[in-house]
Specification:
binds magnesium ion; about 350 residues; binds 3-isopropylmalic acid; about 40% helix; 11 helices; alpha/beta; two-stranded antiparallel ribbon; Isopropylmalate Dehydrogenase
């Protein structure tokens, strides 16, 4: 029995998670997958009501009682500090030690690519982003805050253990794909915190002779992802570089509406979420694109061994895009729930 924790969160989160659950139901019926879910009341509403962000009891329950967590989005204009989002989203990444952030990016329809003359075969990459270290740990502080002499510091942390385990994951993934791993860093400008990545890569590479490992400065990588996207297979970056390059990659294939992700502590914890945010400006309009959430559920199904179901959901999403049975961001005129209905029907007949 697959036990799934649902954290729809804020803004359009609940709308896209609702459709993702309908698709999960359709896939589980078609492919006979037993699953249960529990809805967590975590997000801005609860924070504004009770002051809770991620209470210990919820954290322990999430940590101990589920196979996978499915997240919508966090962020609400009524909480300008974004404190709840930080505690919940970054808190789960840290506290569950979800050190891999995997963001596959695949062009399914050339129409959605902003680059000239690119075919689906040209853009098929997977961003493997370190998800617990770098400048995301919160280590740092201010001196003389709010004075003209203020000093602000955010410390970039990289551990050799953190580099090694992420690179190992990335090498294994590259071995199952086209066998090219590109480490993107700024080791020229950040020799200590990014140099450690290059040394870790050089030491690990001989263990994976089937993989071609190379390094690129992240600024050059950003340029080449636009000019030569076909060169990229697995892209590895620290938390900050990976964050930035994953949005760039998503833009090459149709935007964040099509970008799924998984945050993993492989074999122990797994959290799936669309890369997009809570988009408060379109809440309730039916414009929210549910495909990134649905594709995140496809990643979940695949990770838990339900390959046929994952393939069916993914093919249904591709079919929706190719037939323009989509929300307006991808050129269609369907509402959120209508896209869900289309995908469910495709999956049911897969
Ligand atoms: C992401 C987001 C987050 C991040 C923000 C919301 C803190 O951009 O998941 O990519 O930077 O990790
Ligand atoms: Mg981001």
């Amino acid at each position: 029995m697959l036990r799934i924790a649902l954290l729809p969160g804020d803004g359009i989160g609940p709308e896209v998670i609702h459709e993702a659950c309908r698709v999960l139901t359709a896939a589980s019926t078609r492919f006979d997958i037993p699953w249960t879910s529990e809805l967590f009341d975590l997000g801005a509403e609860r924070y504004l009501r009770t002051g809770d962000t991620l209470p210990e009891a919820d954290f322990i329950h999430l940590r101990d009682d589920f196979d996978a967590i499915v997240v919508g989005a966090f962020g609400d204009p009524r909480v300008p500090s974004n404190l709840h989002a930080k505690d919940i989203l970054l808190g789960l990444r840290q506290r569950l030690d979800l050190y891999v952030n995997l963001r596959p990016v695949q062009l399914v329809d050339a129409r959605l690519c902003p680059l000239k003359d690119r075919a689906p075969a040209d853009i098929d990459m997977a961003i493997v982003r370190e998800n617990t270290e770098s400048v995301y740990t919160g280590i740092g502080g201010h001196l003389r805050k709010d004075t003209p002499h203020e000093v602000a510091q955010s410390v970039m942390i990289h551990t050799r253990m953190g580099c090694d385990r992420l690179l190992r994951y990335a090498f294994e993934l590259a071995g199952q794909r086209r066998g090219v791993l590109t480490l993107c860093d700024k080791a020229n400008a950040i020799p200590h915190a990014h140099g450690i990545w290059r040394r870790a890569l050089a030491e690990l590479a001989p263990q994976f002779p089937e993989v071609t490992a190379r390094t690129l400065y992240a600024d050059v990588a950003a340029m080449r992802m636009v000019t030569h996207p076909q060169e990229f297979d697995v892209i590895v970056g620290d938390n900050l570089i990976g964050d930035i390059l994953s949005d760039l990659a998503a833009a090459l294939v149709g935007g964040l509406g099509l970008a799924p992700s998984a945050s993993l502590r492989p074999g122990v914890h797994a959290l799936y979420e669309p890369v997009h945010g809570s988009a408060p400006d379109i809440v309730g309009t039916g414009k929210a694109n549910p495909l990134a959430a649905i594709l995140s559920v496809a990643m979940l199904l695949r990770d838990f061994g339900h390959v046929d179901a994952a393939d069916a959901v993914q093919s249904a999403c591709t079919a929706a895009v190719l037939a323009t049975e989509t929300t307006p961001d991808l050129g269609g005129n369907l509402a959120t729930a209508e896209v869900g209905t289309y995908i469910c029907a495709q999956v049911a007949h897969a």
